Amino acid sequence: MSFELKYSEYKSRVDRYLVEAIQQTKPDSLYKPLKYVLAGGGKRIRPVLVLLSCEVVGGNIDDALHASAGIEILHNFTLVHDDIMDNADARRGRPTVHTRWDSNVAILVGDELLALAYNILLKTSSPRIREIASVFTDGVVEVCEGQAYDKQFETRAAVSVDDYLLMIRKKTGKMVAVSTEIGALVGNGSQDELAALRTYGELVGRAFQVQDDLLDVIGDEKKFGKTIGGDLKEGKKTFLLLEALRRSNGKDKKLLQMLIKNGGAAKGKIREFRRIYETSGAIDAARDFVGRDIVQAKGELQKLRPSAARDMLSWFTDMLLHRTY
Question: Which top CATH class is 8-321?
Answer without folding.
Answer: mainly alpha
